[in-house]
Amino acid sequence: MRSTTSARPARALAATTALTAALVLAGCGNDEGDQPQAGDDIVTSGPQSPGTGGTDDGGTATGGTGDDSATGGTSSDDIGLDEATRIALEDAGVAEADATIQRQERDQDDGRVHYEIEFSQGGVEYDYEIDAATGDIISSDRDD
After folding, report:
1. Dmax over Cα atoms in the chain, in whole Å?
2. What local confidence, expressed as pLDDT, does residue 89 receive?
3. CA distance linking residue 106 with residue 34, whole number of Å
4. Which pLDDT does position 124 carry in this prediction?
5. Is domain 32-143 annotated with CATH 3.10.450.40?
6. Strand order of the sheet with strand 137-143?
7. What's the whole-model pTM score?
8. What sign results for the dihedral spanned by CA atoms 72, 97, 57, 130?
9. pLDDT for res 76
10. Residues in the chain where the model's pLDDT stays below 70
11. What is the pLDDT of residue 10?
12. Closest CA to 106 of 87, 77, 84
């Protein structure tokens, strides 16, 4: 009869090693699941200064993916949240330091990605939609 007691520790060691390797490799992912992807809504809300980034109270990321995350863009075809905000402020003739940002959102309607920017200054509210690819102003509204 063959002894199985010496084979059990070797099998246990092999199983433990395989399990440890699997857990280590599973933890080496690229974290892409944590980042917004193209087509995801990027929303900020509440008063804030343009370009401050961060998260809103709900924890929604205001940055994008890849190398453009500091500006809120998601690719080289996307102008980014900061640039969209700058375009809206410039068109309204409002200095960045004087504006209170109410809402910034990256959205997609009918396959067209755009940024919705709402801000106020001196009791006047502004609402802009900026094309994410071109920076063109899709619509603008001013409520005195």
Report:
1. 95
2. 98
3. 17
4. 97
5. yes
6. 42-48, 100-109, 112-121, 124-131, 137-143
7. 0.53
8. negative
9. 75
10. 1-75
11. 63
12. 84
Q: What is the pLDDT of residue 98?
A: 97
Residue with structure tokens 């900061």? 82
CA 137 from chain centre, in angstroms, equals 21
**Residue tagged 């500006």 (tokens):** 71
Distance CA 117, CA 103 (A): 6
Phi, psi of 64 (to 5 degrees): -110, -150
Round to whole Å and give the CA distance between 40 and 61: 10
Say which residues have a Cβ less than 8 Å from residue 55's Cβ, sequence separation at least 6: 44, 61, 62
Torsion-angle region of 16 (φ positive above 0: left; ψ -120 to 50: alpha; else: beta): alpha
- Give the domain ranges of the chain: 32-143
Q: Give the integer Cα–Cα distance in Å for 105 and 133.
A: 15
Name, in order, each residue with C-beta under 8 angstroms of 79's C-beta and a sequence gap of 6 or more. Answer: 73, 87, 115, 130, 132, 133, 134, 135
Residue given tokens 């809300």 in the structure block: 45
Burial class (CB in 10 A: 0-12, 13-18, 19+), 116: buried
